[in-house]
Amino acid sequence: MRIDLIALDLDGTLLDPEEQITTRNRTAIRSALEAGIRVVLVTGRGVDMPIKVSKDLGLNLPVICCHGALTKDFSANRTLAHQPLPLQYAKPMVEFAESRGLSLAIYSEELFWRLEGSHVFMDDMRGPAWREAKTFGDVLHSAPTFVRFLGEESVEAMRREFGDWPVAFRYETWQSFVECAVLNKDASKKNALARLCADFQIPAERVLAIGDSRNDVPMLRWAGTGVAMANAQPEVKESVRYVTASNAEDGVAAAIDKFVLRSVQKRPA
Fold this sequence. Notes:
269 residues, alpha/beta, Hypothetical Protein, Haloacid Dehalogenase-like Hydrolase, Chain: A, domain 2, 6-stranded mixed beta sheet, 5-stranded parallel beta sheet, globular
């Protein structure tokens, strides 16, 4: 099947264990671009890192970030789609977390907030987009893109208190660390990617999607060719037909070579 668009997750997928893009992955992406294949980043991260990576790789498509809640055309500095967590749900969650000293971060489009003096749990919670607030009440005036509970204590307390609310919970485990992003119930990587592909009139069967996390599974199943990384959680690998090498072994390049570049080379001139 011909591939017209490649959708790539970042952490654990395109980025290696040192959060770098290997030479082989870069070469495979460049070859795909030169063959006229579109490449889009689809990540749970905030907008800062995917924009940086997109520019570095010479991509010209919008980035899908914040677990699919935000799609940003960085070349025009324009928000194409934003599905924030309604304030009626975000505010009591944030107030609950703050009153109990739970670890929480708030993502509001291109600005990210944590409390002054809070412990930084994850490496991605640094950089110029991050701000500190004396209290979240000072910054939570409109619906945020999503809120992020960090650490087992915070995640379990949130689950007990709000687990039956009509919102989307995206749980992830990084080695022994647990986190949960709480989003608009309609926000997902799959939905955002489907909207972007519809804009370009690209059917699902002509999409190659590669990922490693639970929040990638609906996207991988939607795409005509869904590929899990070898370093993915077992349930992710079990959800798709194809598994590539790990992010330490150029798994993205291997998948692009197999499903895109070989068929491109066979097409008649």
